[in-house]
Amino acid sequence: MNYTGKLVTLRAVEENDLPLLQFLLNNAATASTTGGDALPVSFAAQQEWFANMRKDKTVLRLMVESNEDRQAVGTVTLTGWDWKNRTAELNIKLRPEKCGKGLGTDALMTLLEAAFDHLDLACVAMCYLSYNAASAALAKKLGFVQEGVLRQRIYKFGQRHDLVVTSLTAQDYAVQPWCRRSQNG
């Protein structure tokens, strides 16, 4: 099932998405805003990852596709899925030239709607590097509550950086002005 927002549709990852996923992993601008690996990823490694991706039941990875031109512009994930406690952590990566156009906001709103209204999660976490002002603004806009700071958790650019931990519960989600459930009563 695809999840459709106002600007984007979230859909399954297909093999023809691998070049974009490889680009997002290897792109310096994208890597500078995320906490993951800074190691180069080959296309062969990307293909191997794709072949094994569906075996991991703790990750839901979806492509972000623009509703305007049906082109994939990035990816969103729910990782660290805890089935017993119904929690996960969300992540997003967009092509740098697509940032600042509302696509990321719509993608996360759509992912959160899926998480809470279709997948019955109780809480979704969002972590971001303390210097990532765009992610901080997005978390605030979506109603995430800061839970704490993991000090010097991420090493990038020859320095250690803090990781800000935020979360949104199902109850928090239901009262957000952007939540379709709250708009429908």
Structure description:
The chain has 185 residues and is of the alpha+beta class. The chain is built from seven helices and eight strands; from the N terminus they run ββαααβββαβαββαα. The protein is 31% helix and 34% strand. Strand 4 and strand 5 form a beta hairpin. The model has no long low-confidence stretch (mean pLDDT 92).
Sum this structure up briefly.
The protein has 185 residues and is α+β, with helices and mostly antiparallel strands. It has helices at 18-26, 28-31, 43-52, 103-118, 133-142, 170-174, 180-183; strands at residues 3-4, 8-12, 60-66, 72-82, 87-94, 123-129, 145-156, 159-169. An 8-stranded mixed β-sheet has the order 1-2-3-4-5-6-8-7, with helices on both faces.
Question: Largest beta sheet, briefly?
Answer: 8 strands, mixed
What does the average pLDDT come to? 92
| Strand content range | 25-35%
Roughly how many Å apart are the termini? Answer: 24 Å
The radius of gyration over CA amounts to 16 Å
By DSSP (H or I, 4+ residues per run), the number of helices equals 7
Give the proportion of residues in helices.
25-40%
Number of strand segments: 8
Summarize the SSE layout with pairings.
Elements: E1 3-4, E2 8-12, H1 18-26, H2 28-31, H3 43-52, E3 60-66, E4 72-82, E5 87-94, H4 103-118, E6 123-129, H5 133-142, E7 145-156, E8 159-169, H6 170-174, H7 180-183
Parallel strand pairs: 5-6
Antiparallel strand pairs: 1-2, 2-3, 3-4, 4-5, 6-8, 7-8
Helix pairs in contact: 1-3
